[in-house]
What does this fold into?
Amino acid sequence: MTYYPIFLDLKGKEILVVGGGKVAERKVEALLDCGAKIRIVSSKITDRLNKIVEVYGLRYFSGEFREEYLEGVSLVIAATDDRNLNHKISKIAKKKGLLINAVDQPPDCNFIVPSIVKKGDLLIAISTSGKSPALAQKLREQLDNQFGKEYEDFLVLMGCLRKEILAKGLSQEENSRLFHEIVESDILDALAREDWERVKSTLSRNLPDNFALKGCLKCLINRKAI
It folds into this structure.
């Protein structure tokens, strides 16, 4: 089977995580990063997960899974160490038309979670379609070393530059040319070296005359000393 890759906007969405161990802990942390509203069901949870529940005010149902906990949720993570229970949750969730991921049980999933490399707003998803999570992990480690902090800084800067460029009312072709020239320039290398003069000169060389470059460079002030 071929999976269709997709990035979901989970901000404000109700998510149910069934399980309270280390795996559930990692799932909850990742979902919180996406702004999801999380419910947890488990007879017991790790100390760290308990702290997360307290700090973020998550809804925690102590005890066994019940079908009623699925009401109003958009997505379900079955992360218990009981494969039969995970399978049961999957059947109920699928019947309700919900997205369900049963950890390490691909037949009980209608979506799988890729291995992720995250550098700020840069997300690189790696999947082996459930065939070899170990290979996905190895590739993630390789890519994590390949893509440094400069990519995170570049996207902070580019988010501001893009708004300013689009606001100038240039043609689509001209906008595309400018964006590609910036990406193909040596700016990533300059950011990696924290060579701010080179960053400024590179952008000045590629941007239109009278561009408010100083304002965009302030996007990085809180992250770097320019």
